[in-house]
Specification:
The complex is a heterodimer of chains A (549) and B (113).
Chain A lengths: L1 H40 L7 H6 L6 E2 L5 E13 L7 H11 L5 H8 L7 E7 L1 H10 L4 E10 L7 H4 L11 H5 L1 H5 L5 E2 L4 H17 E2 L2 E8 L5 E7 L31 H10 L8 E2 L5 E3 L2 E3 L11 E2 H6 L3 H22 L24 H8 L8 H13 L2 E3 L14 E3 L3 H17 L13 E11 L2 E15 L6 E8 L2 E2 L11 H15 L9 H15 L2
Parallel strand pairs in A: 1-5
Antiparallel strand pairs in A: 1-2, 2-3, 2-4, 6-18, 7-8, 7-17, 9-12, 10-11, 13-14, 15-16, 16-17
Chain B lengths: L1 H56 L2 H12 L15 H19 L8
Classes of the chains: A alpha+beta (549), B mainly alpha (113).
Chain lengths: 549, 113
C-alpha cells in the first residue's frame, strides 16, 4: 500500500513537473518570439507615420530656372474659447487694435456665446501680429500653428498662379489645377514660366498706362519649339497674397479667361489657309479699290491703299486691307476656312495641362457673310492664349502645339500636329516681317530682333451694334524672323493714346509689343541679329523715332 | 528535473531583461528620432523662410532701382550686343569716348585696337 501510495505521489509529482515544464516552454517560446519581433521590427509599426503625414507641406511653385514663385511658411491662426472669457468687449477691442479689419461688434457677440468652446477669430497671422496679440495678454485666446501660402514676388504671375483658401486648398490658377500634386508635397512644381520675361511683360503692360488710357490688357510669350508659355499676364494685375483685395477689373484673367474679337490679326491665318488650299499664290494681285457687298452688308477699308487696283497679298497684310482679306476668303470658301481655323484650335475650348482657357464664341452658321467677317477677325471671339497658339506654326515650320505650363516642356506634353506646310509658314512670316518694316506694324520693330507681326483693331460690340469709340487693339508677332523662336501677343482693351494719336493697333498694341520684345528677348537667351554698324545705326534711329510717341 | 527548471528560469529572466532593455532602447531611439524629425522640420521651415525672403528681396522692382542708383546699371539693350566680326570696329568707336573725356583731366586714354 505504502509503495502504491508512494508511486501515486511520484506519478502526480512527475505530471506536475511536466505541466510546469510545458508552461515554462510556452512562456519561453512567447518571450523568444516577442524578443525576436522587437529585435527585428524595433517599435510597433505605424506609430509616427500619421504625424508625418499630417505635417506634409504644400509643395513650392518655381519658374523654369527654379526661382521661387509660391511657398508655404509656418503661420498662426487665432482662436478663442468664449467660456474662458470674462469681458468679451475688452478682448474684441484688444484684438481689433492689432487686426484693424476685425469687426468689434461682431466679435464681441461671438465671444459672448457661452454655449461654444471654440471659435476662429483670424487665420493666417504673421509672426509680428502674433507677437503683438500675445503681448496684450488677453484672456481666452489661443494660437494654432498652421502653414500659410505666400507669394514672395507679390503680383508677379498672380493670375496664372491663382491662390489657396485658408485651409490651403487651391482655389484658382495653377494652385487649383495642380492642387492634388501640390498637396502631396515633395518636389517643387516647375513651371515653364521665365520670371525675368514675366516681369518684363508685366512691367511694360503697367507702363502702358502712362501712354494710354485703357481698361485692361493681356500679354503672352510662347516658345514656338515646345509650346512652353514663358510669360502670360493680365492687367490690372492681382496679388495672390491678398486675393480678397482684388479690384473689380482685376478679377478677369484677360489672357486666358476672356474672349475678344481680335480683328485683323486673323488676316495672316486667312492668307495661310488660302495658300494651303492651293487657291492663292503670293504673286497674285487683287483689286481693292471698291467695297465688297455681301448680301446686305458692305465691307470697306478704313484707309485707301496705294495702287488699289492691283494690290499684292503682302500689301493686303502689310496695309491691312479688309477688302483684300474678304476676296481671299471667298476663294477658299466657308468650309475650308472653318476647317483650317479648327485645326488651329480656335473653334473649341483648348485642352491642355494648365488653367483652363475660355471657350471661343463662334458663328452659329458659317455662310458667306460669316466667312467674310471672320477673314479679318470679326464675328469670332477667342481667348488671347488660344490665338497666340495659332501663330506658333508660323514660327516652327507649320506645327500647331497646345500650350504647356509645366517643365520639362519638351517631353511630349504638348499636342503636336502639322497644320500647314513649312513653305506656307515661311511665306506668311515674310509678309508679316514686311508689315513691320514697311506697313502698319512699324512701331513694333525692335533692333536686332527682326519682328514679324500683324496689327489688329476691332470695334467692341455693344447693345446697338459695334461701337466705334471702344476698340480692342492687338499685335501678334513672331521673332526673330530669320530664325523664329518666340510668339508674342499683346491685346489692349479700350486703349486710347494720351498723345491724341489714333486708337488703332499701329499706335497702341504694336508699340507695347516692340517694347516687350526688346526687353524680354535678352532674358530669354536671344541675342540680337546685327548685320553691320550702318544697319545698326539706321535701325536704331528708326526704332527710336517710331517709339517717340 | 529541478536543474532544467532552474536553468529555464535563468534563461527566462535573462530574456526578460533583454526584452526590457530592447524596449527601453527602442523608446530612447524613438525619442531621438522624434527630436531629429523636429530638428529637420525646423530646419526645413527655416530654409523655406530664407528662400522666401531671398525671393522677396530679389524682386526685380526692388533690385532694378538699387542697381541703377548704386551701381549705375541699366537693363541691357540690343545695341549693346555686337557680332564677333564687328568687335574690333565697335571697340574702335567706343575707344574715342574715354580719349575725349580723359583730355579734360589731362590723362591719356587707353589706346584700343
Amino acid at each position: 500500500m505504502t509503495l502504491q501510495r508512494g508511486g501515486s505521489r511520484d506519478d502526480h509529482g512527475g505530471r506536475r513537473a511536466r505541466l510546469v515544464a510545458l508552461a515554462l516552454g510556452v512562456l519561453f517560446a512567447v518571450i523568444v518570439g516577442r524578443n525576436a519581433q522587437v529585435s527585428l521590427e524595433g517599435r510597433e509599426a505605424g506609430q509616427g507615420v500619421a504625424v508625418a503625414e499630417a505635417d506634409v507641406r504644400r509643395a513650392d511653385i518655381v519658374d523654369r530656372r527654379g526661382e521661387l514663385l509660391a511657398s508655404s511658411l509656418p503661420g498662426w491662426s487665432l482662436s478663442a474659447d468664449p467660456r474662458a472669457i470674462w469681458d468679451a468687449g475688452e478682448v474684441a477691442r484688444g484684438v481689433a487694435s492689432v487686426l484693424p479689419g476685425i469687426d468689434v461688434e461682431d466679435l464681441t457677440k461671438r465671444l459672448s456665446d457661452k454655449e461654444r468652446r471654440f471659435i476662429w477669430i483670424k487665420r493666417g497671422l504673421s509672426q509680428r501680429q502674433k507677437q503683438s496679440l500675445f503681448a496684450l495678454g488677453l484672456e481666452g485666446l489661443r494660437f494654432e500653428e498652421e502653414m500659410r501660402r505666400v507669394y514672395p514676388r507679390g503680383a508677379l504671375a498672380g493670375h496664372l498662379l491663382g491662390f489657396t483658401d485658408v485651409d490651403g486648398r487651391g482655389v484658382e490658377g495653377i494652385e487649383s489645377v495642380f492642387d492634388e500634386r501640390l498637396r502631396d508635397g515633395g518636389e517643387s512644381l516647375r513651371l515653364t514660366l521665365d520670371a525675368g520675361a514675366q516681369f518684363a511683360l508685366e512691367a511694360e503692360l503697367d507702363r502702358a498706362i502712362e501712354t494710354f488710357e485703357m481698361k485692361g490688357a493681356a500679354g503672352i510669350i510662347v516658345d514656338a519649339s515646345s509650346g512652353a508659355v514663358r510669360a502670360i499676364a493680365s492687367w490690372p494685375a492681382v496679388n495672390p497674397n491678398l486675393p480678397s483685395e482684388r479690384m473689380e477689373g482685376a478679377k478677369t484673367n484677360r489672357a486666358s479667361g476672356a474672349v475678344f474679337e481680335l480683328g485683323s490679326i486673323f488676316k495672316p491665318l486667312t492668307v495661310a489657309s488660302a495658300l494651303e488650299a492651293g487657291q492663292l499664290s503670293s504673286d497674285d494681285l487683287f483689286d481693292v479699290s471698291a467695297p465688297v457687298r455681301i448680301g446686305a452688308a458692305t465691307v470697306r477699308d478704313s484707309h485707301p491703299l496705294d495702287h488699289s487696283q492691283a494690290v499684292s497679298v503682302t500689301d493686303i497684310i502689310a496695309q491691312s486691307s479688309n477688302i483684300g482679306a474678304v476676296q481671299i476668303a471667298q476663294r477658299i470658301g466657308p468650309d475650308r476656312q472653318r476647317e483650317f481655323l479648327e485645326s488651329l484650335g480656335l473653334l473649341s475650348r483648348m485642352e491642355y495641362e494648365g488653367p483652363p482657357s475660355a471657350a471661343p464664341l463662334t458663328p452659329g452658321e458659317w455662310d458667306g457673310l460669316t466667312s467674310a467677317t471672320v477673314s479679318y477677325g470679326h464675328g469670332i471671339a477667342v481667348s488671347p492664349l488660344a490665338f497666340a497658339m495659332s501663330f506658333v506654326p508660323f514660327a516652327n515650320g507649320g506645327f500647331y502645339l497646345s500650350p504647356t505650363f509645366i517643365e520639362p516642356a519638351d517631353q511630349g506634353r504638348a499636342e503636336r500636329r502639322q497644320v500647314m506646310s513649312s513653305s506656307t509658314a515661311r511665306t506668311v512670316l515674310e509678309m508679316m516681317r514686311y508689315t513691320v518694316t514697311s506697313g502698319t506694324g512699324h512701331n513694333a520693330d525692335s533692333l536686332g530682333y527682326e519682328v514679324a507681326g500683324k496689327t489688329g483693331t476691332a470695334e467692341k460690340p455693344g447693345p446697338d451694334g459695334y461701337d466705334p469709340d471702344r476698340n480692342v487693339t492687338s499685335f501678334a508677332a513672331v521673332f526673330p524672323a530669320s530664325r523664329p523662336q518666340f510668339v508674342v501677343l499683346i491685346v489692349l482693351d479700350e486703349a486710347t493714346p494720351r498723345s491724341g494719336e489714333a486708337r488703332t493697333a499701329a499706335y497702341t498694341a504694336a508699340t507695347i509689343a516692340g517694347r516687350v520684345i526688346s526687353r524680354a528677348a535678352p532674358l530669354l537667351g536671344l541675342e540680337p541679329i546685327l548685320t553691320s554698324a550702318e544697319d545698326t545705326q539706321r535701325q536704331l534711329q528708326a526704332v527710336s523715332e517710331a517709339r517717340s510717341l | 528535473m529541478m536543474r532544467v527548471f532552474v536553468i529555464a528560469l535563468i534563461v527566462i529572466a535573462g530574456l526578460a531583461i533583454g526584452v526590457y532593455r530592447a524596449k527601453l532602447g527602442a523608446q530612447d531611439n524613438e525619442k531621438r528620432i522624434e527630436a531629429l524629425r523636429g530638428e529637420i522640420r525646423d530646419a526645413q521651415e527655416e530654409i523655406s523662410v530664407l528662400k522666401a525672403e531671398e525671393a522677396y528681396l530679389a524682386r526685380p522692382e526692388r533690385i532694378g532701382p538699387l542697381a541703377s542708383e548704386r551701381l549705375g546699371l541699366a537693363p541691357s539693350s540690343p545695341e549693346q550686343f555686337t557680332a564677333p566680326e564687328m568687335l574690333s570696329r565697335r571697340l574702335g568707336e567706343e575707344g574715342s569716348i574715354p580719349t575725349e573725356a580723359s583730355s579734360v583731366s589731362g590723362e591719356t586714354g587707353a589706346s584700343l585696337p
